[in-house]
Amino acid sequence: MTKLRSLLLTCLVGAILLPGTSWANDPEAVIKYRKAVYTSLKGHMGAVAGILRGGLVDYSGHIADHAVAIQNAARIIPSMFPEGSDFGDTDAKENIWTDRAGFEKAAKRLEEASGVLVQAAQSGNMKAVGGAVGKVGGACKGCHDDYRVSN
């Protein structure tokens, strides 16, 4: 009975881990995933801009939630560009892989700028939020200028 349980447990663990392993090795799936993350980043930035530009005072408390989402996404950006995902339907420039330190530094700037946005939003100071949004946008632009093919 113990051998049967051990065999079943081994099969179960293998079944759980196998899809994750094969997904991680599929460059097209990685590219699709990172595009979804970038789409969410764009959505969160658009939501913050909409609140500010629209004067949606009742929704100003949501800015902190959007800022946290931006910061969390920024934190995982480098991991979304593993070796072997530098081809296919991607706007990523080759130097993401050849200038890895610079790319990681650019992602860190976005993470830090979005952290400032989180703090500004939590303070309720909309002038500070506006300035922080500008810094987040600048971090995005800097990375796009250096590491993204222009469309």
Question: Can you walk through the features of this model?
Answer:
By secondary structure, the protein is mostly helical. The protein has a single domain, classed as Up-down Bundle (Four Helix Bundle (Hemerythrin (Met), subunit A)), CATH 1.20.120.10. It has six helices and no strands. The chain has helices at about 1-25, 25-55, 65-75, 95-100, 100-125, 125-145. Helix 2 runs antiparallel to helix 3, helix 2 packs antiparallel against helix 6 and helix 3 runs antiparallel to helix 5 (about 100-125). The longest helix has 27 residues, at about 25-55. The radius of gyration is 20 Å and the shape is elongated. The N and C termini lie far apart (about 60 Å). Mean pLDDT is about 90; it is low at about 5-25.
Structure characteristics:
151 residues; mainly alpha; Four Helix Bundle (Hemerythrin (Met), subunit A); 6 helices; elongated
Instruction: Name the assembly state.
Output: single chain
Q: Can you say what the CATH homologous superfamily is?
A: Cytochrome c/b562
Q: What top-tier CATH class fits best?
A: Mainly Alpha
Give the overall silhouette: elongated
Which architecture name does CATH use?
Answer: Up-down Bundle
Number of beta-strand segments: 0
Number of helices: 6
| Rg over CA atoms | 20 Å
For the biggest sheet, the summary is: none
Number of domains: 1
Strand percent estimate: under 5%
CATH topology: Four Helix Bundle (Hemerythrin (Met), subunit A)
Question: Termini separation (Å)?
Answer: 62 Å
Mean pLDDT across all amino acids:
88
Given the helix and strand composition, which structural class is it? mainly alpha
In percent, how helical is the residue content?
over 70%
Low-confidence stretches: 6-23
Order of helices and strands: HHHHHH
